[in-house]
Amino acid sequence: MIRQQEPEQTEDGLLGEADEKLHIEETAARLKAAVAAAGGKDRVSAASGVPISTLNTYIYGKADPKVSVFVRLAQACGVQVHELLGGENSDRPSASYKAEQDGFVPVPRLDVRASAGRGRLAIMDAGEEKEFVAFREAWLRRIGINPAFAQALTAVGDSMEPTIRDGDLLLIDRSIDRIVDNGIYVVVVAGMVVVKRLQTRVDGSVVLRSDNRERYDDELIAAHDVPDLIVEGRVRWFGRTI
């Protein structure tokens, strides 16, 4: 699923539901023909990694393939993405594909939820469809994130309040796998994924600090245990629903 930070626009305004439905039906027909030409659903499913049940929802027009899935299906069928979309000059691009055309890039939303409380590892159901959140590529680069290393996840807990609240969407830079400053990081401690401010000390130890100081005390990682501290990335942005 692509979730975008701004509504998609066409020349006439918001993309109409009827137009989007028609696009899905037309795309489904082209995808069905491409899959048949590529050797059938079994072969395309194996080559793309898309389960046959999911592939069927696209072929029968029950859902619109998302950006990353669309690319994999096109590759598995041996065609270009724009061929499935209806040609390079198609006037009904899907919302997800149009997002890329408009300067947005899909940022994967991780299955792991980072805890902003005492720390717990919450894995989403394996059957859930992976989601993406669309951000403008220029904006990502402006705040110093290479889009290839950008990922999003959901904060759980209250230890980082009022800065980060339960349910906030976090944008993290996965290229940062070590402590580079006293910022907010996503780290794995004893198998638990947590969001904390990290502060290094001259003796080599690291302090895990919560912003909610009234309820949570600092946690000290001794110097000899620091190698076991896994830095998953640095938090560069967060957002929430009002």
Secondary structure elements and pairings:
Elements: E1 2-4, E2 9-10, E3 13-14, H1 17-37, H2 41-48, H3 52-59, H4 67-77, H5 81-85, H6 95-101, E4 104-109, E5 112-115, E6 122-123, E7 131-136, H7 137-142, E8 150-156, E9 169-173, E10 184-189, E11 192-200, E12 206-209, E13 219-221, E14 230-239
Helix pairs in contact: 2-4
Helical percentage: 25-40%
Distance between the termini: 21 Å
Tally of helical segments: 7
The class by helix and strand makeup works out as alpha+beta
Largest sheet: 9 strands, mixed
Helix/strand order, N-terminal first: EEEHHHHHHEEEEHEEEEEEE
Structure, described:
It contains seven helices and 14 strands. Helices cover 27% and strands 29% of the residues. The longest helix has 21 residues, at 17-37. Helix 2 crosses helix 4. It is elongated and about 65 Å long. The chain has a nine-stranded mixed beta sheet with strand order 6-5-8-9-14-10-11-12-13, with no helix packed on it. The two termini are 21 Å apart. By secondary structure, it is α+β, with helices and mostly antiparallel strands.
Which structural traits does this protein have?
27% helix, 7 helices, 3-stranded mixed beta sheet, disordered N terminus, 14 strands, alpha+beta, 242 residues
